[in-house]
Automatic annotation (TrEMBL):
Domain HTH iclR-type: 2-64
GO molecular function annotation: DNA binding; DNA-binding transcription factor activity
IclR-ED domain segment(s): 65-245
Domain of life, source organism: Bacteria
GO BP field: negative regulation of DNA-templated transcription
Record keywords: DNA-binding, Transcription, Transcription regulation
Name of the protein described by the UniProt record: Transcriptional regulator, IclR family
InterPro entries documented for this protein: GAF-like_dom_sf, HTH_MetabolicPath_Reg, Tscrpt_reg_IclR_C, Tscrpt_reg_IclR_N, WH-like_DNA-bd_sf, WH_DNA-bd_sf
Transmembrane among keywords: no
Amino acid sequence: MSTTVEKALKVLELLSTYGEPVKLVDLSRALNMNKSTTYRLLEKMSQLGYVRQESDSSRYMLTTRMWAIGVRAFRNFDLRAWTRRHLEELEREIEETAVLAVLEGVDVVIIDKRESAQAVQTMSVLGSRTPIHCSSLGKALLMGDMENLLPKLPRLRKFTDKTITTLPALRKEIEAARETGVAEAYDEYAIGVSGVSAPIHGVDGALLGVIGISLPTSRAKPPHLDKIRKAVRDHADRLSKALGGID
């Protein structure tokens, strides 16, 4: 990226954080950029319709053109398109089924996947719904927005002897997952099914979805499991960075 373009984008990003018009000197100081350079960038962006200068105070603010671009981008946003390559890479690296899921109400819904070529594999059905408390995908969603989601959960239904059925225990599990960067579940929804997942964040930390690996519990052992944790965490971080969730 050229230096001029990079500086211009930094000006736009900074202006978007202010709730009122800003003085040139304040922008220059905050950007650690000399006033003449800041002024030239603002003038050019003003000519292009991205920035407006108030006539009475000479302060600067963004125009609605940036908002319009954001609205169009959001309208055309497809999480599956952004994650497709990552699912393919994750499946190739780990040789297990890679899954993408989103939150719908308080359920987990699988919206894309790349199945492994393993003779024995778990069943991940597109469009299927599972409760949020008993899968790695659901726990990863809770990692991303636990404070908002936990109070909305109904009674935690028991599916196996390993299902977490109390909110304090679930909270403790999610807090531990936040420390490691990945959520894990072993035989909690169905015996023989395990998973490792991580949240995908967008601008301002918005929770967009989760990416993970689903595999038979019989294969969820070190060193394979350690490789899965690292790969899932790395792909989630790369996606979040690309989508504006990580600086």
